[in-house]
Write a sequence for this structure.
């Protein structure tokens, strides 16, 4: 059997993209062995650190070492390109585009347009960026179908933890009636620190210093990140066709030390809970701080760990917990989607 | 596309078998629609309540109503048969055999022989009985491969919760380095009741009355059931090629009220923990009561709920929790395996 080539264009080359490339290098020979596919990265774009394009395949070791040594691609390389992400999406000859650009939480752009461009060229797309799924899932899904394109997005919630694949591949004929989860680590961290007796402002300052909290934590604290994840879960698992703006959202900004203390006196904790269910035939999504009893596994989802529980008609309730993920788990999510592309193409 | 027929022989027709048949009746038309397969049950055996054989398909509604009304198959039915399970395995014309006979925990027999018989006839097999996987997985797997037979066993641990399918279908290239779990509800119940201040003997008597504890609870209390499940997990997920006898097993029979109380004073609980890992290149399995810290989700796994955590090289640690399953979840496990057979045959 001849080895075929799968050409991949990567939009974005931050920590997750770099970890993905390392994993690809590590598993390259095994993939050739098992699937007879040689995966070549033919383009990588960044916003301000240059791009690389080489339709015969970029030397990924050099791409990694450039970033490590210079924090940008070396400008005198033959493969160096000034193409931006949209130019790559539009013009490079690839089979699959991987959307890894930073999330624009209120629009999902330009990631949505990158993926549309790929589909309109009948290319396949993988997104680790949840924006497109939160804001335009139905439209993208329909376009992919029309163009015979594959569209995978496992990494958009809980990194590579196979929540969407689990449902699609292993829970067939099950109807999902409810979804719950804890999916935002910043609020998890802040609530835990306050429960230790610290003041909100001190927790934010210390969290930023320690790298647990972003420079502008408003999107996390106000529940927008959790709302985007809830929209993704409900769009994919329940066909909700909603956006983050449709989620009934309340952040943790108004939670007082006193409320946390009162919960703690009962052995309970306050957590920011993502929820979706069917009410009067309509799928509704909420993000709200809730007091969680000490008997629930939700009380023990701490720090960067996360949980999703799906309630089904045939298989009851199942929870999946991801424990303290690292960037390698994000990389694995993208990697797993690439394998699905190879397997699906193989079947065509 | 023509509708094909999948002929199924069921060995055993207890609660799980009956729930499976109900699910099959319920989803029959959807399966024909989606996969163009008409699933017909052509044989059902029981140990002492008669059997039924009809190569054109048993009337499953009558089979269910006989059991409900008479607790055995009506002897004057045309389909009534005195075949035992092995005679059915050997002689009936089926495509797939479903092994649902009661577990013989120290041998895995006669379930192993049923499955071997099916494979030797180049038939496919599904087992919900964990005996064959605990005692003879490698042998059966090799025989299935040699005979081009399919072999599925999702139901053997955690009912239909897709633990094996999860790993096989969605965690490709991941190497599992460690497995942990709480998988025995009797010991879970007993330890919880003792923690409430009750005496061991009283808990057993009351548990039997309430249906939580079997007539002879020794297999649960001494950890044999958990050891069988551990062997299944390690054989399938880690290729351990071990049996329940190889598991370093300690039950809860020596746990004292005082130990439980001392743990409770720290907010902790004692749980019977299944564990497998690699030590000096060899896979070892243990079943042991352990004190679990109140910060672990394992402290929240109560009653009939269960958990499995897999540690992987590429995807870190993932836990799956099944919440308070009913018999319908066992039925779904078998149903899911039947769907896999149809999909796999479709590909051949």
């Amino acid at each position: 059997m001849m080895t075929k080539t799968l050409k991949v264009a990567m939009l974005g080359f931050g920590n997750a993209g770099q970890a993905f490339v390392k994993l690809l290098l590590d598993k390259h020979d095994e993939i050739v062995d098992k699937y007879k596919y040689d995966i070549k990265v033919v383009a990588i774009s960044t916003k301000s650190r240059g791009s690389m394009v080489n339709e015969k395949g970029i030397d990924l070791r050099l791409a990694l070492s450039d970033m490590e040594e210079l924090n940008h691609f070396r400008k005198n390389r033959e493969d160096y390109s000034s193409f931006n992400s949209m130019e790559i999406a539009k013009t490079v000859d690839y089979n699959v585009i991987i959307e890894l650009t930073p999330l624009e939480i209120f629009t999902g752009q330009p990631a949505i347009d990158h993926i549309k461009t790929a589909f309109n060229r009948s290319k396949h797309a993988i997104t680790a960026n949840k924006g497109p799924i939160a804001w335009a899932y139905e439209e993208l899904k329909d376009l992919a179908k029309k163009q015979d394109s594959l569209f995978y997005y496992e990494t958009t919630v809980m990194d590579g933890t196979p929540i969407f694949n689990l449902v699609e591949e292993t829970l067939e004929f099950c109807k999902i009636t409810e979804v719950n989860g804890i999916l935002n680590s910043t609020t998890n961290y802040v609530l835990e620190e306050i429960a230790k007796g610290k003041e909100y402002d001190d927790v934010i300052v210390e969290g930023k210093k320690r790298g647990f909290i972003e420079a502008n934590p408003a999107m996390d604290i106000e529940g927008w990140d959790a709302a985007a994840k809830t929209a993704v879960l409900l769009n994919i698992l329940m066909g909700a066709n909603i956006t983050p703006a449709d989620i009934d959202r309340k952040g943790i900004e108004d939670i007082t030390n006193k409320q946390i203390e009162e919960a703690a006196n009962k052995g309970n904790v306050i957590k920011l809970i993502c929820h979706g269910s069917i009410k009067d035939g309509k799928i509704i999504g909420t993000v709200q701080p809730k007091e969680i009893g000490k008997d629930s596994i939700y009380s023990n989802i701490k720090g960067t760990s996360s949980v999703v529980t799906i309630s089904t008609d045939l298989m009851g309730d199942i929870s999946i917990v991801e424990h303290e993920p690292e960037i390698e788990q994000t990389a694995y999510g993208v990697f797993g989607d690439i394998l699905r592309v190879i397997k699906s193409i193989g079947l065509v």
In short: The longest helix of chain A spans residues 15-35. Residues 163 and 259 of chain A are 33 Å apart (CA to CA). The mean pLDDT of chain A is 95. Chain A touches chain B at residues 23, 27, 30, 160-162, 165-166, 169-174, 294-297, 299-302, 309, 314-326, 328-329, 332, 335-336, 339 (CB under 8 Å).
